[in-house]
Amino acid sequence: MRIYKWSTDTKKVNLVTDVPWKPLSLAVDKNDTLLVVVEYTPLKGSTINGKKETYTKPDDAKGTSYGVWYNTGSTIKVYSINPDNPEETIAELTAVPSSSVQTVYNVYTRLTAGAITVITYRSR
Prior knowledge:
Helix content: under 10%
Distance between the termini: 33 Å
Number of helices: 2
Mean pLDDT: 77
Number of domains: 1
Structural class: mainly beta
Radius of gyration: 17 Å
Strand order of the largest sheet: 3-4-7-8
Low-confidence stretches: 114-124
Order of helices and strands: EEEEEEHEHEEE
């Protein structure tokens, strides 16, 4: 998956990152950090603490329409990336209980001819 950014100053496209995972969603946070949701499938030979990296179907995928298609060799991960310094800032976000989240920001978009024209944030 390659992610590019457009510079309004130089009128050029630049590569932000190139990772081997299946992209699912993109978003930005209130600081313009890029949030990338991916279906993460370990690369061949990947290990964690010397053991083969594996993922099983999570309990919450059973009985859903997505559960039928869920790749049991993969998992969903979210990464944050500062588009101005991607190589130094790419980091996997840690899952936390939703009850621990203090402020939630909603993103509202308006599409015109297939392009996002407005993104605004509001806390609730």
